[in-house]
Amino acid sequence: MAGRFIEVENLGKQYETSVPGTPPALQSVTLAIEQGEFVAVMGPSGSGKSTFMNIVGLLDAPTDGAYRLNGEDVAGFSTDELAHVRNRVFGFVFQGFNLLKRITAAENVALPMVYSGTAGAERRRRAQELLDKMGLGAYGSAMPNRLSGGQQQRVAIARALANRPQLILADEPTGNLDTQTSEDIMGLFTELNRETGVTILLVTHENDIARYANRLIRFKDGRVVHDGAVVHEGAA
Amino acid sequence: MNVGSILREAARSLGANKLRTGLTMLGMVIGVAAVVLMLAVGTGAQNQVNRAVSSMGSNLLVILSGSTSAGTLRMGSGNAPTLTTGDAEAIARLPTVQAVAPTFPGGAQVAYGINNWGTQVLGVTPEYTSVRDWPVEAGDAISETDIRSATRVALLGATVVEKLFDTEDPVGKTIRIRGQPFQVLGILKKKGQSLDGRDQDDSILVPITTAQSKLFGNRFPGTVRFMFVQAVSQSATSAAEHDITLLLRQRHRIQPDADDDFTVRNLTQVAEAASQTARILSLMLGAIGSISLVVGGIGIMNIMLVSVTERTREIGIRMAIGARQRDVLLQFLLEALMICIVGGLIGIAFGVAGAYAVGKAMQIEVAFSASVMLIAFAVSAATGIFFGFWPARRAASLRPVEALRYE
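ok -> structure tokens follow
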């Protein structure tokens, strides 16, 4: 049996700090996420939501508990296997975009395919296809700093989609964008989730953004305090 | 993941940040160029001195007549004419002595056609050319017959040939020395500067008997001004010095408590002192070169360390989107390699060009050695590669989240 897509059990994270008695960033988090879900993670700053996402995204390791991906405990993964999962199974979208500044938009989109060993011609074709899909077909040769914030975030989403991931991890993807652009980006995520069935894990502190998701997990002081369907209250 | 696309990734990364690449390369260029230049000048100076030393002839002693106080070759007129051709013949029979070349010098104006030139004329015996290691390049040497008959023949130094003859072959032509006709017997091989910087090729050799009796008129027939003595070996020079002193005191009937009326100078000591000076000079420049290498290395280290450390975040991004540690390391290693190879080659080119320019501007000789370039290149490249690789390794071994957080 393959097991569930993502399953964490008693997950905990205690940062090594010089201040003794600091409460753990994350404690006893137990939950599961299925393929195709659109999950919003909310909570005030310091609540552990970003720590949770970094651990799920294999950018960081927990200090306690277990994390199983498709039934396999990731604690046993080598650094190469972790890199492989980040490359093929996950796609990241960050608040600060995290594009490489010195290479073009198309080269940024193609970068995950460099590490997956895709041939150069196929990389360029796929990068163009993704940029077209993001409405940025004409900006392939532009440097990231020539693009607006919304455009940069679309480039970052295109990059996240390059290797057809099963999960997109988005950490405050609209944090640096204005309202209109935020809505566009969220529309894009919703569409991706509906059309391709890609699982989305979205970290945000804005209710307006969270309501695009189907499921809401609330963190407070490193613990899950709410986990349930998003209530689309009061249709305006 | 193939090496080819990582290589292209490294090249793209270098090309994308030309300022950073250029500055990093500059450290490499300066380090290598400084070493190559320093050592080219040092080796050149050493070669120059060594050649001047060997142009003196080997295992030489010089015997000066008359004044005991004058420790140089400049014999003023009126000095006691104490050395004779007979002394030379007696010295030649000593077991520690290989050959003797008695010499009678003078200054003279020489002329050929419309050209004339003031130069030094040396009255010599046939041994002179072998003792001074100064072969005849074209024509014939001075023979015993020329000595016996005091013939008017001459061997010309390269500078004299240049001053008197334009394109003609001098051999067999007749020149005038102090108005007297001399037939040019042959031309001497170019010898270059002496240790004190004199142009040794600016001289004419004539039979000693001709110089004594016909050219310079001598109040004391049969005397010579000085002689070169070649010892049988370098280790025999001190013994020869001792033997010659004893022999001459005996021949000149000098009382035990009286001073010598001649001076014996051991030129091998002079030569050794000069060679040693050159060696020290070369060593010093080598030391300066090594310091440049260390300073250059520190420069390379700093810029590599800084430029790679400030890319920690980039490494984090690359790892987040699926780069393995070895992909990141290979890329940074290749970047460092490319910078070091290109920078090193440019450094060698600058060093060589700079050394030529310095040599031209200061009229000194420069000499290049492949091993010096190789060492400078290897040390700088090793420094660059290590300090390009190590911070990348450190960054790649962080958890991606830590590398991403780096500002």
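The mean pLDDT of chain A is 90.
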